[in-house]
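Marked as duplicate of an earlier ticket. Keeping the data here for the record.
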Amino acid sequence: MSVPVASDPLAELSAAGVSVWLDDLSRELLAGGELKRLIADRHVVGVTTNPTIFASALSKGDRYSEQLRRLGAEGASVDEAVFALTTDDVRTGCDLFAPVHERTGGTDGRVSIEVDPRLARDTDATIEQARTLWEAVDRPNLLVKIPATREGLAAITAAVAQGISVNVTLIFSLDRYRAVMDAYQSGLEQAREAGRDLAAIDSVASFFVSRVDTEVDARLDALGTPEARELRGAAAVANARLAYRAYEEMTAAPRWQALAAAGARPQRPLWASTGVKNPDYPDTMYIRELVIAGTVNTMPGTTLEAFADHGALPAHPPTGEEYTAATAHFEALARVGVDFADVTDTLEREGLTKFEDSWTQLGASVDNEMRGATAAASASGGAGLLAIYLNDHLSGATGGLELFRRAAQTQKDRDGGPELAELARQVEQDRDSLIQIMTDLDVSPDRSKVAIGWVAEKVGRLKPNGHLFTRSPLSDLLELESMCLGVAGKAACWRTLRALAETDTRLYPEHLDTLLERAEHQSAVLEELRLAAAARVLP
């Protein structure tokens, strides 16, 4: 009798020719062994980073503290300290992925580091920093990230011409993507003329996905017509599919064929921003809909785990009919009044602003830590009462996450188990969102309060349910009621922040609206589970 083989969606995705990269890097992931586990168990073959990721990394754990205080004692500037932290982490990441890089012949095992986003409009400064980063990390599997601004295009060409491998980021429009492909080929042609080995130069083009739906859907909702509403949730995938068609056209052209014959590597399309922002959409849809051999999909940790748990591949890659449908979708958007060129211009501006803000916040956190004052700044500095408020909610979110995880584990084989498992994943995402919002607001997490939240959940298990140390029939009901209260508190926090977003440009109203909608959905699911539990255990 044959034993059924357990499903491994990420293995199937890899077998379909998609390179699975993680959109995250921190010293905690590196030193704690989690990244090594993801390489071994989750088929991860690369990592991407950005200023927001590094800012978030600094807020988690204390693995940076000693180095930062030493740099402070040595009189290092904030920019020098940021450079040291980020290049150290990326160099360590490159070393960890070196076997993957060797096994794949240099295709994967790549780790990215971004130039200072404040230089995005300065071609010469971007070129200089790309060279400095390349030399400082000094690893062949590095990719230097350069934003695809108009000024960035010339920097891409110059960097590639010097033999620097690049990850071109913040691509939203097809016209800009074609310009990026042209810039890469121009750099390769200059490198060839200089006698460089083209096979040693690599590149990916990071085409952003979910943010497109977020912006387009908001405009469709504002229009409010039935025709507009029917077009929601399809622009991002349509845009990405047309980008891939543009890539196919480029690689079939004589210009590329001549470079390939000289040993050049293709600039693979990389699907970025693949975490779903709208909870109404399937959480793996930007993975499933973009399964195309020879591409990269870089995923946040939550999306990676979601696909590992319940991901599925499509019946076939995109066809000519689907490319035609994608074109028709943009024609329909234009008919209802959505100016997609304005959408992509807006997304580029907002993306640069967000990265610049994250870089500034990263610098502020580094500055505080070098002076050994992060905790004091959170408690009584510029953040003031807002810092206390957010840290109190973070403490509650930590305890709540532990409760959801425990409930999902204890009830996994019973009615409601799958729903609780999904809620636990969402609650983890919500906690990460709160930490990111705190970073955006320059509020450092108070580790003592986080610890209190964790301990409080453990102590809370000793509740009056009729059994001091074991579960009773009332345990499920009492836990569900506690979870209902926790989600209600979280929703109140989102509403408070949504009100602040009207005057504080560091907050993103659309994101907070999404978080609030998800909290309301979580409340509805928990209420159904609570009523079912009450019917089971109460006379």
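See parent ticket for discussion. The longest helix spans residues 340-370.
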